[in-house]
Amino acid sequence: MTEVINKSRVTSLLFVLATTFVLITSTAYIQTKASAPGDAVPKEIVQVPQPEKPVEQVRKNIQVLQGLPDSQLFPVMNFIGDSLGVHCDYCHVRQGTDPKTGRDIWLYESDDKTEKIRGRQMIKMVQDLNKTSFGGEQKITCYSCHRGRTRVERVVPLPPVDFTLPKTDRQPTLLSAEQILSNYIKAVGDENGTNFKTISYKAIVERSQGRTNAVWQQILPTTQEITIKEPDKYLLKVTLPQGISMQGIDGTVGWVSSNNGPTIQLGAAELQQLKEIAALYQPLKVSEQAAQMRVLGLEKLGDRDVYVVAVATGPLTTRKYFFDAKTSLLLRRTTTTNTMLAPLPEQVDFEDYRDVGGLKLPFIIRTSGLAAFTTATRKFTDIKLNRAIDDLVFKMPGSRK
Ligand code: HEC
Ligand code: HEC
User: Which of 126, 228, 314, 396 is deepest in the core (most CB within 10 A)?
Assistant: First the structure.
């Protein structure tokens, strides 16, 4: 089921994707959590962007998910597994491992497990519910009922909330999106946008599920150097056992290069992805205008009060920002893309803000998507502001003069 189309291009793309943040909205790749911690080889499937085929034309036994773009199948399956708190093998048959590659052999099309049949009935039920009871809006998902478990709660927990007691918490007056955003900019310390010209980070990357062994390290490196230069330059440098790999943005040119393969210039969609990733390393991590934003309210994030602000970034994509009500700093960003069955979320958390040359910057960035192996924590060991950095380092290798 691995579609390898053009090996060198795929290898490089894999490098881009594996070393950057999770972007499941992309059609450029599909991710699975089909690999168990002990697997010898990770199981990402990488596809070169091409016209999207619906899943029933690509897979063997699709009865209820017809019309789903194939690139969304694995993210949706991850959503189902996460909703029930199970691995793929809860519903799908695994038939040993391939002795040559060490990979698991999956018979995803098989209907031998009753759980899969039940799952299919549930998909149908959810589709019907949303159609008949929620005007076609996707209000109900597997998670609405399952909450991370195969069993579904039926009885409310006791004791109940006593609504007759006097309320202690007053409703606070909400700030506007403009106020929240300008407080954030002030808190970061970049009010007039002149406080920084360059920024360079050294990071250690930690992965979930012990994915730090030699095989994983080849594609999921554990140290990175990131450099940004205003207004539009970005460089990520990763040291791997097999050599140094890089990706860069130089104005309108995006590129990846590795010691093993050729340098490749990115297409428009890939460049856009890379820009979104680079934006997370800017001191200010919000690029949308306050006028486009909606204040959803004051919520709890852990033990902190946060303002939640939403903005539509595409017809199917919503982004939410979570600002600390006390410090005004950004604590979380989520981006959710709707599909025909389930919303696909990505999350970035910003922690451990410290002062660097007058700016407040997070020293920990955590990213996660639906597949467990995409969870990554970047801990910055060093952040330097306004070092002199030559434009040359951002140029695509081969075009450097
Ligand atoms: C709760 C049950 C359930 C879980 C868990 C689950 N799936 Fe599925 N999967 C299904 C059902 C049901 C279908 C068939 C959908 C249809 O008929 O349209 C399916 C179809 C598939 C297919 C297409 C098979 C074909 O050729 O027709 C693939 C591939 C797949 N799943 C992968 C996965 C992966 C990878 C995971 C783990 C991340 C996973 N699934 C987890 C229920 C599940
Ligand atoms: C409206 C509530 C609701 C929604 C939504 C829902 N389920 Fe269920 N599901 C249930 C209930 C209730 C059961 C029966 C649980 C039990 O027997 O304790 C169940 C059972 C199951 C089981 C069998 C579990 C077992 O081990 O016996 C599977 C598999 C399942 N659901 C998959 C899904 C999938 C996949 C989705 C999303 C496409 C989904 N469910 C959405 C309510 C729901």
Answer: 228
CB 201 within 8 A of CB 281: yes
Average pLDDT over residues 39-62: 65
Amino acid at position 145, single letter? C
Residue 122 in contact with ligand 2 by CB distance below 6 A = yes
148 CB burial (10 A radius; 0-12, 13-18, 19+)? exposed
How many angstroms separate the CA atoms of 69 and 73, rounded?
A: 7
Report CA(150)–ligand 2 centroid distance (Å). 7
Closest CA to 334 of 360, 314, 309, 371: 309
**Could you tell me the distance, in angstroms and rounded to a whole number, from the CA of residue 124 to the centre of ligand 1?**
14
CATH number, span 2-146: 1.10.468
Domain ranges of the chain: 2-146
Nearest CA to ligand 1 atom 1: 119
**pTM for the whole thing?**
0.84
Q: Which ligand is nearest to the CA of 150?
A: 2
- Counting from 1 in the atom list of ligand 2, the atom nearest the Cα of 115 is 29
323 near 180, Cβ under 8 Å?
Answer: yes
Tokens matching residue 374 = 């995409």
